[in-house]
Amino acid sequence: MNRTKVFTGSPWEPQVGYCRAIRVGNRIEVAGTTAMKDGEVVGAGNAYEQARYVLQTIEHALHELGATMSDVIRTRMFVTNISLWEEFGRAHGEFFREVQPVATMVEVKALIDPDLMIEIEVEAVVG
């Protein structure tokens, strides 16, 4: 089956050996995505802004593969401070209030950069 991949230019993609998103048939998987742009953290110290930026990045990757946020069936949110769940959830709700995919939010000890507060991955089915 054909695989179509999306890359975002993250320095970790070639180093670790992964792509941002991949489409195989009608399924799309988006890798864990953080609020990094050109090696800098977007929205440092702001849970809502980081989550919003991550979801915009995911939305762009989905569009490149012929999908939209309404095709998302699952989200997984890895957060470094679960007490900020309302801020992360507010951003998630702005993108998925009508779609209502299944969602998981769990607290993790750390992400790859200490200023990162959230990492999100999604699964989508097109058609």
Polypeptide structure, described:
- The structure is a single chain.
- The protein is an alpha+beta fold and about 130 residues long.
- Helix content is about 30%, strand content about 30%.
- It contains 3 helices and 8 strands.
- The chain has helices at about 10-15, 45-65, 85-95, and strands at about 5, 20-25, 25-35, 35, 40, 70-80, 100-105, 120-125.
- The strands form 2 sheets. Strands 1-2-3-8-6-7 form a 6-stranded mixed beta sheet, covered by helices on one side.
- The longest helix has 18 residues, at about 45-65.
Q: Classify the secondary structure makeup into a structural class.
A: alpha+beta
Radius of gyration: 14 Å
Specify the number of helices.
Answer: 3
Question: What number is the mean pLDDT?
Answer: 96
Number of strands: 8
Spans of at least 5 consecutive residues whose pLDDT stays below 50 are: none
- How many angstroms does the end-to-end distance come to? 17 Å
Overall geometry comes to globular
What is the strand arrangement across the widest sheet? 1-2-3-8-6-7
* Percent of residues in helices: 25-40%
What string gives the helices and strands in order? Answer: EHEEEEHEHEE
The biggest beta sheet reads: 6 strands, mixed
- Percentage of β-strand residues: 25-35%
